[in-house]
Each structure stands twice: as structure tokens, then as C-alpha cells.
Amino acid sequence: MTVSAVVVSHGHADELERSLPALAPQVAELLVIANLPGSVAVVPDGVRVLENEVPLSFAANVNQGVAATRGDYVLVSNPDAVPDGGAIEALAAFADEHARA
């Protein structure tokens, strides 16, 4: 199973500089939704950024991100969440083993 990740940024460029390098190698694709100007500065290679013309609600941003990904699973992560190595693989393995979860 492949895992895509969506991160919504409401001006969290500094937090993304710490979280994206930890998240990117753990997922098949990584998408950042830039909801406000200044939401994204530096991103690792291969990370896609979608910039909103006008700010949207958190839910609308997540829906936009999920619709733009292709993974079997979609992880929605906060800009300040820095996953430990292997964390996403462990989550996907749990989901594979527990279909009702």
C-alpha cells in the first residue's frame, strides 16, 4: 500500500522546514497546501505545493489535498509534527492489519 501525505500550512513556513524533511522519505508523495502568503519557503525535492488564491477552511484544504493525491492511504499531518523514522510505515502496517480501524 502506498501512503500520500497532505500538510496544510497557514503561514507555517518555519515549522515546515523541520517537518517536511522527516516526512518526505516516509511517503510516496507529499503535498503541501499553502493557504496563506508566506506559508511555504523551502521544501525538499519532490514535494508538491498547491497555493490557494484565497484562504480556505482547514476542512476544505484537506479535501483539496486528498483529491490531489494518489496513495492508497492519505496521512494528514500538521506542519509542526515531525514523525520518527518508520512511523508512517508502522501506521500503514496497522491499517493493513486492522481494516475496521
* Biggest beta-sheet profile: 4 strands, parallel
Class derived from helix and strand content: alpha/beta
What is the string of helix and strand elements? EHEEHEH
Quick one: overall form?
globular
Q: How do the strands line up in the largest sheet?
A: 3-2-1-4
Total helical segments: 3
**Helix fraction bin:** 25-40%
**Uncertain regions spanning at least 5 consecutive residues:** none
Mean pLDDT: 95
Q: Percent of residues in beta strands? A: 15-25%
Number of strands: 4
Evaluate the radius of gyration: 13 Å
Measured distance between first and last alpha carbons: 16 Å
Quick take:
This protein is an alpha/beta fold. It has helices spanning 13-23, 58-67, 87-97; strands at 3-9, 29-34, 48-51, 73-77.
What's the layout of helices and strands?
Elements: E1 3-9, H1 13-23, E2 29-34, E3 48-51, H2 58-67, E4 73-77, H3 87-97
Walkthrough of the structure:
It is a single chain. With about 100 residues, the protein is α/β, with parallel strands linked by helices. It is globular and about 40 Å long. The chain has a 4-stranded parallel β-sheet, sandwiched between helices. The chain is about 30% helix and about 20% strand.
